[in-house]
Design a protein that fits this description.
single chain, Rossmann fold, Hypothetical Protein Tm841, Chain: A,domain 3, four-stranded parallel beta sheet, 12 helices, about 25% strand
Length: about 290
Amino acid sequence: MRDFVIATASTCDIDRDWLDCHDIPVISYTFTVDGKIYIDDCRETTRRAIYAAMRQGKQPNTSQITTYNYYEFFKKLLSGGKPVVFVDMDKAISASYNNSLHAAEMIKDEMPKAKLVIMDTRCCTMGLSFLLQHMIALADEGKSFEEVVAWGNENALKISHRFMIDDLQWLRRGGRLSNASAIVGSLLSIKPLIYINDEGMLIAYDKIRGRKKAIAQLLASTEKDLGDGSGKDIIVGHSDDPEEGEKWKQMVIEKYPKAKSVTMMELGPTIACHVGPGFLSIVYLCDQRHGK
């Protein structure tokens, strides 16, 4: 039994049963499809529902977690008397981070002796999962609250995130790309390759014409900061295409046979709403984040 709490949000995209088994409290984002509100509860049934809607051409809309919901979540966790560290996707991707800080200030006024750390992870989805799982492992090894938080702060920016987006129309629908750019890009079959920089911002470091070439370049671009992959834990991801995800995983295994592990995850609803099906990713620990 840990003497502190590690908590997260549904954007970690880890299966809810695993989170429950490891005693990780989760606060959920929500999204709306056809006027119906869904809770991103990290469960398979929810992922299938959102992907089915997207395959039908429907555009889901995501919502921030409110300051009040964070306040209630943190207050409940701290009522047990244990320190709490909370990890979620970073402030450059979602304004929810600022809401969590406001809630923490409210808690501080009411519970001045409570210890609550809100980490600015500058990670999201599989990268957030990578950070969270390593912090949990350290806690289960007997590391103290301070040691676990210190490891998280020291290593969050060493978690490299690389993504390929298959269909630019999802970025257009989510307001992250102009209509003209999306149309031209789709006609030319342009696939942007994206990484998360040290400020937590999504940066396109390459634009490749054709999916096959884009996947090859996504893998090649890892060489700069992954080396030969010796002893590394690697997470690969997909969105609603497990067969393609498995092929991607095998490509990574073949390129990095010395890796300690290569595991596969599926992108959860909150981020999937903005990138759509066909997305691929790779996440790993490196010395420094790089683009191309």
